[in-house]
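Course exercise 7: structure representation. Students receive a sequence record and must write out the corresponding structure in token form. The form below is the worked example handed out in class, using Ubiquitin-like domain-containing protein (405 residues). Read each field label carefully; the graders check that inputs and outputs are placed in the correct fields and that the protein name is recorded exactly as given.

STUDENT ID: A-19
EXERCISE PROTEIN: Ubiquitin-like domain-containing protein
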Amino acid sequence: MPLVAAALTFGSFGDILEAARIAKRIIDVLRKGGGSREHQRIILTLNGLCEDMAMLTVVDEGHFSIRLQTEIDLCRSLMTQFYAEIKSHEGPLRWVWGVVSEEKELASWRLQISARRAALHDVLGSLIVLMSTFLSAEVSRLGSEIRQLGSDVRQISKISPHDISDPVFFVMDPLGKPITIQLSRCDSFNALDRILKAYLCNHPEAGSRYVERGDYSIVSSEGVIIPRLKLGEKFRAGIQFEMSIIKRRASRMIIQRCPHGHINAGAGEGSWANCWQPTCGARFQVAKLEASAPNIEEISSPQISQQNPAEFNDRTELEDRKESFRLVQMFYVGDNILNGFINRTNPLPDSSSRRKGVMAACSNCRRRKIKLRWQEPGVFTGDDEQGDYHVMTIGTLGPTRTPGL
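STUDENT ANSWER:
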């Protein structure tokens, strides 16, 4: 009996299993007792009851009603009584068969079992109708949700990507290609530095080696180098910046002229003079040392400043032959250059004053001042963003286009 086996194996309710087990024992006893017509009828009735019990094992526990539980209890009680009646007759086997073979008693038991089956069918039928109604409602609800989801997906697919976007700004890489950066992911120079290093990684043609060691500046659309500490204040939607690669070259040559044509060796503090370089001839005024100056960020490249001069020259010469970028800043710094420049420009009274630098008026714009700083080789400064000073290291050649670009 496969259904009975299924009930005994996979049944989830103890009462159902118990009733089915007892019915199975009764069937076994009746089969051994003979083959009378009433025996076969009650065996068929009990088999039907076991099949009904097996069907109940697939009913979800959440829909297991009180009425159904009552009918199962009645079935189990009936099976228990019937089995107890059989087991109560001790003695020779033929005596047992004689008792159970009484047609009248067997017919009475069969009628009681049939009545229980009919009641069980009524409850089970009602339960199936309820479950069908519930499942239909669930299917309808899920279908409605699926249709709504499909409608939402279609609406989303019609929306232009430009209608839903995070505000962005742009940075032109050293080759002039725009890098799009989301404002929500970049609020400081450190964040921008990580993005640029990741974007230009393994792109030597775009100056990845310079970017990796920090030898680059961020330049505004007006051509002003922006200090790194204040760069985050400049970020806003739609703005565009440019990257300027920094190349440095150490040299033992003593400078013979003013790096920018603005300084004269004979000028003193507060005095006006003309540049001694014939090709320059610009007029300037040296400011007093106590003049206030903005707090200007200094940027250094340890990888370069720690290089051996001979090795450094060879590497930069190789880079000069292979690389050509859109914006380049050149820095010529070295002990001899600094000493030669100091000797040929404004003499300062002591070393402490030398560390403060010299302020001079710019002969080009006639408005800003120039602050020359000679601190250590390999250290340079950027322009102050307020526009009050041109701040330059010795040998700076501004952001300028590389020849041929």
